[in-house]
Amino acid sequence: MNVEQVLSQFQTTAEETCFHDRHLGPQILAGLNGKNWSLQDYVARGGYQALRKILGQDGSAPNPETGVAGMTQDQVIATVKESGLRGRGGAGFPTGLKWSFMPRQFPGQKYLVCNSDEGEPGTCKDREILQHNPHIVIEGMAIAAYAMGISVGYNYIHGEIFQSYERFEAALEEARAAGFLGNNIMGSTFSFQLHAAHGFGAYICGEETALLESLEGKKGQPRFKPPFPASFGLYGKPTTINNTETFAAVPWIIRNGGQAYLECGKPNNGGTKIFSVSGDVERPGNYEIPMGTPFSKLLELAGGVRKGRTLKAVIPGGSSSPVLPADVIMQCTMDYDSIAKAGSMLGSGAVIVLDDSRCMVKSLQRLSYFYMHESCGQCTPCREGTGWLWRMVDRIERGEGRPSDLALLDNVAENIMGRTICALGDAAAMPVRGMIKHFRHEFEHHITQKTCMVPAYV
Amino acid sequence: MSSEATHHSAPLSAEVFARFDREVAKYPADQKQSAVMACLSIAQQEQGYVSAESERAIAKLLDMAPMAVHEVTTFYNMYNQHPVGKFKINVCTNLPCQLRNGQGALMHLAQKLGIEVGGTTADGVFTLQPGECMGACADAPVLLVNDRTMCSYMSNDKLDQLVDGLRAAKE
């Protein structure tokens, strides 16, 4: 065997994580099998119908008021607003509203950017979208570009998922050849050039202005805001940035209407969402389910907690969201509002499940190391504070903590929050505060007894 | 690595420069610097690491100061600033992976290869490094081979097969 053949034995088929029958009413992951990623297959699933619709190329009658077939820019944005779609990257900002911030009449170049720099621990959904349904992202981006009058776009993809980057590049070639990208798309006056770029190992580039810096060929250090990307983005030009899954949701919304999408979820939380379930469950994977589905149902879809164990806690929205104990999360539904009300964040929809064998001090120790490692070093509270947090959690874990450490941890975390250019500082501080809030007794036990309450970290 | 001071890399090949051109073409003519991330990773793919010579060649192509290229090389975790083994293995040990034996997978490989984490085998075939989140948490334990190929569900048996397979692989 050559090297390629050796490595091919260890590639995932995604049968367990993506192509299972445990999605509920999927839109983005529907009908995928790992072999049907290409343009021909996507079109057979109804792909590019939404782009045809807005460009008036789907055979429907012209609008009686305007006499023109297709949808206007305002109609597309209004439809997305009506859908209740909120940003799937973590912040949950209303997508239609973001699109309306773009100064469409700006005479110079404007840019559209897709944030596929998926590195929030626990999150593994964009990789599968790009790998198995790349054209849905291309179509979503083309629709967004049309709505905002943008002619050039980039998809910035996490360096670690290089195979998905290559897959997306292949899909771009197909879309260009078929006339869904390029000049005068489907004979219209709309032109859109789309390219792929990749990162190379920097969590911070998931922050949108760090991503822009990286796309400009620099260190990925976040920018001061304001100005926001809508006025000063890529190369200083107006730029709209959305997450991969956000763009992937758009074609369905255009085909079926904003109201229909909203009704898939619950008010203020429209549509379906892909939840990446990792950790102590029988079947880790991605589950596309309606917003507002009870957490208990999601846990059931993921096969429940590992056999022989019980649920201890869940980090519901990626590693930076505060942990929720079992009794709290079991009362939640999976949507922005319910998780926020419980004191955490839906974030990117990355659900990290911890069972009763897990020591929360040890779990936090690993997360704190991560934030220290990934702090870009630009702001003192984050650069110094993340190291301070990690060193304290680390010594508590090793049985060398001091009685004053818990108050100090809280104090350092509080002094990071809100005092940095970007949200990485907050992202490092929130898990610390969440863990101490809900599992203080475990930290105290480590400090006073110099040992772990849960010795079976297996 | 004591050899790094005397290590000189060969010039980048014509094929590499052709790939650089395809990356440069993605960006506006006055924004060639945007291609630096891709160019560095292509240079690394050919030579195993990013040498000062490669940085200078890329700087010249993209009208950048060599130090601006070096800033990029040193900011992003995946660029190798020094030669590494023929196969660089990065094992994710972040929390979601740790919950499914990611740390154990790293330790198993260290034992199997007889090296410390961060080290390179004496025959120069393997370098072993820990990694941060690769965005494949449901496939844990996961690892990357030479930056571009992700291996999933890496039980200890599979780790042994991977190492033995790569050692025996034909060119």
At a glance:
Chain A has 458 residues and is α/β, with parallel strands linked by helices.
Main sheet properties of chain A: 5 strands, mixed
Shape of chain B: elongated
Strand line-up in the sheet with most strands of chain A: 6-5-11-8-9
Strand tally of chain B = 4
Distance separating the two termini of chain A:
36 Å
> DSSP helix count of chain B?
7
Main structural class of chain B: alpha+beta
Q: Which chain pair has the greatest contact?
A: A-B, 67 and 58 residues
Q: What oligomeric assembly is this protein in?
A: heterodimer
Structural class label of chain A: alpha/beta
The residue fraction in helices of chain B comes out at 40-55%
Mean pLDDT over all positions of chain A: 96
Terminal-residue CA separation of chain B: 26 Å
Q: How would you describe the shape of chain A?
A: globular
Instruction: State the major sheet of chain B.
Output: 4 strands, mixed
Order of helices and strands of chain A: HHHHHEHHEHEHEHHEEEHEEHEHEHHHH
Number of helices of chain A: 18
Q: Cα-atom Rg of chain B, whole angstroms?
A: 17 Å
Helicity range of chain A: 40-55%
Number of strands of chain A: 11
Major β-sheet strand ordering of chain B: 2-1-3-4
Can you put this structure into words, describing what you see?
The complex is a heterodimer of chains A (458) and B (171). Chain A is of the alpha/beta class and 458 residues long. Chain A is built from 18 helices and 11 strands. Chain A is globular, with a radius of gyration of 23 Å. The mean pLDDT of chain A is 96. With 171 residues, chain B is an alpha+beta fold. Chain B has 7 helices and 4 strands; from the N terminus they run ααααβααβββα. Chain B has a 4-stranded mixed β-sheet with strand order 2-1-3-4, with helices on one face. In chain B, helix 1 (14-24) runs antiparallel to helix 2 (36-47) and helix 2 (36-47) runs antiparallel to helix 3 (52-61). In chain B, 45% of the residues are buried.
